[in-house]
Amino acid sequence: MQNIKSKIDWQSWLQRWDAQQTGYIPHREARFQAMLDAIELQMPAEFVALDLACGPGAISQRLLKRFPKARCVAVDIDPVLLAIGQGALGDANGRLRWVEADLMADNWMEAIAQTQVDAVLTTTALHWLPPHRLLQVYKQLAQLIRLGGVFLNGDIMPFPFHLGTFRQISKTLSARQEKQAFQERGVEDWNSWWQALAQEPELKELLQERDRRFGERYTDYEPILDLHEAGLRDAGFREVGVIWQIFDDRVLLAVR
């Protein structure tokens, strides 16, 4: 990542990433705001956070801006998104550290070289994990987060299957919002963003490495809310509940 220099406009790619993500998640900034509000009310001025499955560092960027004495470790398996984040955000004057690690591997916590953190935050990411792996990650996080620390997950967490009307309303609304964003307002979508990024010749090797790592890995499991809550309680978090919600877009807070 460090060797890719500077013909690439990293800031522009990060901004385009945020824009296309907002096409899928129209209340994305409100979700971030809710998560950071919870952090402000629970954390001291100086704390260490883990940006889990960080992508290009959307959480890290906002967290370090709001909390000038905080430090953050940003971890992901995607070499391209990590390169964009590192290129755009750097190390934030020593307050931000980037780590490549795979949440599907049992030893991913070894890579972050952090025995304890005060908070773990993640958004729009853990639905890619199969349920058995998600539950294992929650158990690992319970070991990593100090007593009194917090875990915050902002994501689509569907209603349980017996609430069929709730599920249908949420899916219909989401489809309508995506149509408005991508067809009516012309927002760049996921596929178009990646196709455009592939035109950067300096990223060719990283894109190939990304394809090698992911292969057929893209399966959207979308565990229901009940599984997240039960898994966190079983892992040892003493308080678990939703603190922000618009239909099935939620922020789940767990207190260690």
UniProtKB/TrEMBL annotation:
Q: Which domain of life is it from?
A: Bacteria
Q: Which GO molecular function annotations are given, in alphabetical order? A: methyltransferase activity
Q: Which InterPro entries match?
A: Methyltransf_25, SAM-dependent_MTases_sf
Q: Has keyword Methyltransferase?
A: yes
Q: Where is the Methyltransferase domain?
A: 50-149
Recorded hits in Gene3D superfamilies, A to Z, give:
Vaccinia Virus protein VP39
What SUPFAM superfamilies does its record include?
S-adenosyl-L-methionine-dependent methyltransferases
Q: Which UniProt keywords apply?
A: Methyltransferase, Transferase
> One of this protein's GO BP terms?
methylation
Protein name as it appears in the record: Class I SAM-dependent methyltransferase
Q: What is the lineage of its organism?
A: Bacteria, Bacillati, Cyanobacteriota, Cyanophyceae, Oscillatoriophycideae
